[in-house]
Every structure is written in structure tokens, then in C-alpha cells.
Amino acid sequence: MNIVVCVKYVPDATADRSFDSSDSTVDREGVDGLLSELDEYAVEQALLAAEDGDGEVTVLTVGPADAADAVRKALQMGADKGVHVEDDDIAGSDAVATSLILAKALGTLEYDLVFFGMSSTDGTMGVVPTMVAERLGLPAVTYGSEITVDGSTVTVRRDGDVATETITATAPAVVSVTDQSGEPRYPSFKGIMAAKKKPVEDLTLSDLGIDASEVGLGAAWTKVLSFAPRPPRSAGEIVTDEGDGGTKLAEFLASKKFV
Amino acid sequence: MPAERLMPTEESIDLIALTRDIVDRELRPRVDAAERAASFPREVFRTLGRAGLLGLPYPEEYGGGGQPYEVYLQVVEEIASAWASVGVGTSVHALSCFGLFTAGTDEQKQRWLPDMLGGELLGAYCLSEAHAGSDPAAMRTRAVRVGDEYVIDGAKAWTTHGGEADFYKVMARTSEGSRGISCFLVPADTPGLVADNPEDKMGLMGSTTATMLFDGVRVPAERRLGEEGQGLSIALAGLDSGRLGIAAVATGVAQGALDVAVAYARERESFGKPIIEHQGLAFVLADMAAAVESARATYLAAARLKDAGRPFSRQASIAKLVATDNAMRVTTDAVQVLGGAGYTKDFPVERYMREVKVMQIFEGTNQIQRLVISRGLAR
Ligand SMILES: Cc1cc2nc3c(=O)[nH]c(=O)nc-3n(C[C@H](O)[C@H](O)[C@H](O)COP(=O)(O)OP(=O)(O)OC[C@H]3O[C@@H](n4cnc5c(N)ncnc54)[C@H](O)[C@@H]3O)c2cc1C
Ligand SMILES: Cc1cc2nc3c(=O)[nH]c(=O)nc-3n(C[C@H](O)[C@H](O)[C@H](O)COP(=O)(O)OP(=O)(O)OC[C@H]3O[C@@H](n4cnc5c(N)ncnc54)[C@H](O)[C@@H]3O)c2cc1C
Predict the structure, then answer these.
(1) Residue B67: is its pLDDT beyond 80?
(2) A127: which of A82, B46, B329, B341 is 20 to 30 A away, CA to CA?
(3) Alpha-helix runs per DSSP H in A87-169
């Protein structure tokens, strides 16, 4: 079973993130980046699925030079090799363009399953897995909180608000996993040493036969027109209990539609 | 604010990042409750072990990380900056493997070292006795040769990980005098070996300390490390490296205390401005920062001597003395900076102060460090 995990290099969600004022895209310079924490779950599931077979786990990323750090982290966790698509013209790409690049890159690889995290921690759209599946004409089983791979069948449990679904698909297929799918492992120091020797292939748009006009900020279907920092939190409202405290609390909750 | 570190290699940079990640996600959320409840965090050591952090200073051929002390000690410091007991435990584990690595035969090393460094096992060492702490040559625990075995009887006091460890490096007397001590590697499940009730300590509650009682403990002769009579020199050689570990631990705790104090002093106001803007307090913080960074520089200087294969015994004692005395001052000052709040358990600084105190005592009291340093000068 060969598996490709698509991972994204994102600004650290615990840092002060903001937009770049010149083009209203996410500021990737000002904060440290890392492998999206939600993608660590996908790496974990891919490693587990590949564990007792003789297949390989390839980690694929589209992103700037620093995105190599995300690939390296996944290799340290245990993935076998990396593919990094990097091109200045990719900057500002939206989900549609990203899915195009990923689909083309997947076309150069051998795989049975393609794993994704449920969404990125910066854009948080969660649509790229299905877009990639659509482009490749593959079944997509998404938001899996339990993943079982048996032969060429992948079974996914999907926890919804009102029901739990169990969905199966036959490889080749696209799978996205949630943060309930199982805690990702830490790399080990041996993994850190081993990752130094693992191959990473660098690809550009022209390697993939993609014209620069199809991707980047110019090709984006949506555009951020303006942004403003969220106003600082205002002080809460203190209810003094003068015998009617309970009523006031109930009124407050009702006004916020909590009850 | 994380300490500024100049790491020698790319993998050591990644190693520090891995350590910080594990520290933030696995240690910080647990330390307060575990220290209050005096519960030993065995699972945390397994996590560290699986990540390869318990075997770092030993060669890769035995399952270690092949890292120089310069790197290994900074990992220990990072661990201790969040949880002193676990930092101490990491250093004690490394020390418990030291005898086998330095004095064991190739066969002994190949047989036992990979498991000891593999991360699932935890070690302890038994040198001190109730009446023989600073002067271990006064020990009384005996190992008597009977056929292919030694039979050990006695009590080894103050054993860190006592009752929790999987193996014990034990110093016991095989004949009279300081050259009459031998070193043994004793599995925890050997009949006759039990831990007494843990000590009720001032701090480091998450690190179990107990007297190990030896009642006719039979150890195969092949588990003796080095020759009969070499035990004390094996133990003391290990202590040189262990002292560097304690210096790193103390520096980590001091860094943790400094970080809490600075963050508090930026927020807390008196007389209409943040207290960090009162020079009288700002200078206290400046002295704390200077003490932390000079402690780090001192243990790293000693570590680099060791890594280069040069004698480093005096420098190790200097590093232990400087780092633990500095840390005592820094953690005491951190309580001061927090005022009344610092004296409560709402903040970790009072715990840091209690934890650092013992670092001036174990692995050779700071008086004994001065003894080692001054004897070296007199020679
Ligand atoms: C929490 C904890 C964990 C420990 N872990 C271990 C362990 O894992 N393994 C182990 O073997 N031991 C361990 N120890 C023991 C530790 O190493 C001893 O406590 C230490 O060596 C001091 O010995 P002592 O307590 O007997 O003090 P003593 O030797 O009785 O010293 C009492 C005082 O006299 C001073 N003193 C003694 N001799 C001199 C001298 N010649 N000149 C000047 N001053 C002197 C000392 O500095 C000290 O201030 C641990 C101790 C503690 C508290
Ligand atoms: C156990 C205990 C019992 C107490 N009992 C009582 C009691 O019975 N009654 C009562 O009224 N209070 C009591 N207190 C309060 C005590 O007096 C205060 O904690 C003390 O005055 C310090 O104030 P603070 O804690 O607000 O520290 P802060 O005023 O916030 O000071 C924090 C730090 O900043 C330093 N600092 C502040 N201003 C300056 C400056 N201008 N220049 C230089 N440094 C500065 C301080 O020295 C300290 O190191 C008690 C406190 C404790 C811990």
C-alpha cells in the first residue's frame, strides 16, 4: 500500500497571526511556520496504514521554501520520502489552484491512498481534499475519525451531529482525517537522524506542466478586500443578585439564544 | 522566553525543538498536579525514552543518540526548565548507565546496554548510605562472593527512582578500605531487593527517593562491572558527568524562574507603573539573567572539555557549584519579585526554590565540590 500525505506549512497558530497589508494574504514572514497540527493526524494515520505492508509513505507539500520544514517534520515522524512543489508564481493561490497543483503532483506519484488533514489551521476551508478527489476522479471519504485499511478497502467512521456514518471506498481513494483519529506520534531522535538521509524531490510549476496564469493571487476565485484586527475583548457584564439573579441570568442566556 | 542556544548541528537544533514540543505538551500540563500529589511520572519517562531522549550521550551502536555532552545537557536543561524532577531523573538515568558503558566488557555492554538505553527501562544508582553520604568510602553494604554469585546485604540510602527503577547500579563492599568497593548491575526484580518507604521531602516530590534494602540479594558474578575494588572509582568518574547533569538541571529551573519573574514584573504595577520599570527591581532581574546565563556558559565550557576528551573533573565541580548556587539565588529572588504572590502555590516559583535547594546537596554537596576544586589547585 503506497500512501501520499498532503501537508501544509502554516503560521504557528499559537503566535500572533495577521494579514500582509500589501496584498491582504496571510502574513507568512512575520511568524514562525510549522507543519499544520491537523496534518500531523493525517501523517499518523498514513504511517499506521503503511506500517505492516511494504508500501511507502510520501509526503507532499505545496508551499514556499520554508515549507521544507513541514516535509522534514513528517519525514522525522517516519514518512519515507518527500515532494515539495515550490514556485514564486504559486504565492497567493486559493484552494482551487492548490488542488490543481496537488492533483498534478499526485499524477507523478504512485499511490493507493491520499491522506489529508481535515482542514488547514490557517485557511480552515477544508475543501482541498474533495477538490483533489474531483480532479483525479477518485472517491473521497472525508472527516474520518477512525480509519481502517484492509487490503484495498478503506473504511472510515464519520461522527456527525446526529448520526455516525461508516463509509468504505476502494483504493485509489482520497481520505481526510479529523483530530479525533488518534494522537500523532512525536518524532524520535533516531527519526530526526534518519530524516536527513531521506529523499525530497523539488518540483516547479513547469515540471508539472502548469501555466503560471492558472495559479497564484491573480487566478484566485476570491479576494480578501479588507481586514481589521478583532477589537479587544470588552469587560463582561456582572449581575448583582438582588433576589432576581436567577431571572437575570436566564434572560441573558435567552438573549444570546443559549436557552 | 526560551533560552538562546547556539547548537552545533542541524540535528541538535531539531532535537531541541522536539524536546520543547514534548515539554510543552506532555510535561507542563502535568507537573503541578504530580508535584502536589508526590506521584512519580513513569509514563512521562516512557515518552521521553521512546523519543530517544534517555540515551542521548551514548553511542548509536548501543542504541544511544551519539550526542556530545554539549547537546545532551541542553536537552536536560530544557526538560528541567519545565519539570525539575524529570530533569533530575533524566540525568540520574544517564548516570546509572555510565558504569556499564565505561567499565563493562564488550559482552556485558552488548547484552544489557541497548535495553537500558532503549527508552522503556529506567535506571537508578546506589552509592550513598545513611552514615556515608559525603564520604562514600565509609559504606558498609557488603557483597560476598559465593561460587558464581555475590550475595549483597545492607541498605543504600537516598536512591533516586528507588522502587521505580528497572535496574540499579550498586556500589558495595567486597573487602576493606576505599579500594574494597565493587560495582554491580542489579535488576529490580532480584529477590531480596525492596524499597523502603519513600522519603518525605521538601521538594522534588515527583522524584521518588527511597532507601533500597538488600537482604541476601544474589547477583551473578557476570553482573559485576569492572574488577573487584574498582567500584568507588567507577562511581566517582560517573559523578563528574552526573554533576554536569545537575548543573544543567539547576540552570533549567533558574531559567524557568527567571521567565516567570520577568513576565510577572512586566504586568504587575506598583506606584503607577509596571514594577519592572522600578530600577530597584529591574536590577534584581538583571542579576538573575546574568546568573542564569553565566551558569549555562560554565557548564557548557566543562562539557566541551569532556567532549574533547580532556580532563574536566575540576570544571564539572565548578559548574555544579556555580550553577546550583546561582539557581538558589535566582529562585529565591523570583519569589521576591512576585511579592506575596510568590510565596503562594498559585505560582511555581516557591516550588522552584524548594527544588533547587537539594541541588546544592546531592551528587556531592557544594562543600564537597569546593573540596574537589581546592584539592585540584593544591596539586
Ligand atoms: C533528593 C535526594 C536524592 C538523592 N539521590 C541519590 C541517588 O540517587 N544515589 C545516591 O547514591 N545518593 C543520592 N542522594 C544522596 C546525596 O548524594 C547525599 O545526600 C549527599 O552526598 C550528602 O550526603 P549526606 O546527606 O550524608 O550529608 P553529610 O555527608 O552528612 O553532610 C552533612 C553536611 O556536612 C558537610 N560536610 C561533610 N563533609 C564535609 C567536609 N569534608 N568538609 C566540609 N563540609 C563537609 C556537607 O557539605 C553537609 O553540609 C540523594 C540525596 C537527596 C537528598
Ligand atoms: C504570608 C503573608 C501574610 C501577610 N499578612 C498581611 C497582613 O496581615 N496584613 C496586610 O495588610 N498584608 C499582609 N500581607 C501582604 C504583604 O504585606 C504584601 O505581600 C507585601 O507588602 C508586598 O506586596 P505585594 O505582594 O503586593 O507585592 P508587590 O507590591 O506587587 O511587589 C512585587 C515586587 O516588586 C517590588 N517593588 C514594588 N514596588 C517597588 C519599587 N517602587 N521599587 C522597587 N521594587 C518595588 C517589591 O519589592 C516586590 O519584590 C501578607 C503577605 C503574605 C505573603
Answers:
(1) yes
(2) A82
(3) 95-107, 128-136
